[in-house]
Amino acid sequence: MRPLLSIEQYRQSILERIPEPRPVTVPLDTAYGCVLAGRLASPHDLPAFPSSAMDGYAVRSADIAAAAEGVPVSLQIEGEVRMGSAPHAEVLEGRAVAVPTGGMLPEGADTVVPVEECRVEGGAVWFCVPSRPGRNVRPAGEDLLAGELVVEAGRRVEAADLGALAAAGFAEVAVYRTPRVVVFSTGNELVEGGGDTGPGQIHESNSFMLRALVRRAGCEATYAGRVPDDPGALLRALEAAPPGDVLLCSGGVSAGRDDPVRRAFEGREEVGCVQVSVQPGRPQAFGVFRDKPFFGLPGNPMASLVSFELFVRPALKKMMGLPPTVDYLNATLDGALEAAPASVRFVPVRLTESGPQLIACSREQRRSNQLAKLAQSDGMAEVPPGAGLNAGEPVRVLSIREW
Fold first, then answer.
1. Distance CA 85, CA 18 (A)
2. Cα(374)–Cα(398) distance, integer angstroms
3. pTM of the entire predicted model
4. Which of 131, 260, 287, 334 could connect to 252 by a Cys-Cys bridge, CB 3.0–4.6 Å?
């Protein structure tokens, strides 16, 4: 029997076979969720011109410096600024130009007085208070100066990033394309679509969980259906898989007589089956099939979830241009957790907040097929092999919900 691989050894062996991502240029409106391949600097000042922050009148502050209650100052209205157009009039001494919020500030003006502070009579506007230079004026480059950073390389594009990039004039950007993951389930016992189950049959559920995990990782997921416990059927299904970048299969990776993944790749070089020192999730399969990474995960739901977080998500991150890390939360145990003799053990926990601290409340369960109990948990606490962990000790938790 081959020795067990550590979690780190197995994950590293996977990452070594995942090629570095190549950037592609995409229209800006399709870049959401992708990782930027390079830093993007503004090609011009943002905003590109000084504008008004209020509906009001653009004036020279010196012209209304003496304005006061009881001693108003009047200026002749010279015209108005239209949105999307350059001003047709310059603000000369003794003149005012009406300007809307966001309208371009006319030459000569250095302040904008809100309409609420003005009184218009005929072709003149009266002011009862002075206005300092720069008041209600948005200077050019207030948001960004030409050459300043808009979005850094390696950042996943969010809604605000799209807005900033569009405002800076970008129509397309270089990103690392989001991987498309094709998900299979194996097992003669599986019934799809909520149909009636017969003796020895169960409803297919892993694909729903795995597709959700793929989407949570920011990738696209497609279900390719159930594959029977037949190695030939599995190979045919993989060869006929829908378009995608990654093949993800649950079940059939152990040493059972009918396990199709192990049997399909016996004597072949594409995919290897190994044993990893993790509980649940010891049997694993990985390789490259038809130039696509192939992951074979255990069929038990908890083992499948743990395997995804430890091995699949880091690989997807690398393909997306992100650091291929495992995401842990730091918490404190409220009770003892037993360790496995020679494996890292993951135990479902509920998480509660106590001030700035997360408390992990143990939900000990010995069977990795208990999906309903898993759904009542918030994460999987990591217990190193050995003596276990006691109440009050720190623990790392794989989060299965947003925190």
1. 52
2. 12
3. 0.86
4. 260
φ, ψ of residue 312 in degrees (nearest 5) = -80, -50
Which residues are within 8 A (CB) of 18 and not within 5 positions of it... i.e. 6 or more apart?
A: 293, 315, 318, 319, 324
What is the spatial distance between Cα 264 and Cα 283, in angstroms, rounded to a whole number?
15
Higher pLDDT, 98 or 372: 98
Secondary structure of residue 115 in the 3-state scheme: helix
Phi/psi of residue 301, nearest 5 degrees: -55, -45
Q: How many CB atoms lie within 10 A of CB 54?
A: 20
Residue pair 368/209 in contact by the 8 Å Cβ criterion: no
Under 8 Å between Cβ of 311 and 6: no
Q: Are 301 and 371 in contact (CB under 8 A)?
A: yes
Kindly report, residue by residue over 5-56, the tens digit of the pLDDT. Answer: 999 999 999 999 999 999 999 999 999 999 999 999 999 999 999 999 999 9
Cβ atoms within 10 Å, residue 166: 12
If you average pLDDT over every residue of the chain, what do you get? 92
Structure-token pair, residue 369? 């097929």
> Cα separation of 396 and 330, whole Å?
5
CB 274 within 8 A of CB 284: yes
Give the chain's length. Answer: 403
34, 178 Cβ separation under 8 angstroms? yes
Other C-beta atoms within 10 Å of 96: how many? 31
Long-range contacts of 211-216 (CB under 8 A, 24+ apart): 211/181, 211/183, 213/305, 213/308, 213/309, 213/312, 213/313, 214/181, 214/183, 214/248, 214/316
CA 309 – CA 322 distance, rounded (Å): 15
Q: Compute φ and ψ for 192, nearest 5 degrees.
A: -95, 160
**How does 76-91 read in b/e, with b if 16+ C-beta sit within 10 Å?**
ebbbbbeeeeebebeb
Q: Which two tokens stand for residue 144?
A: 């960004």
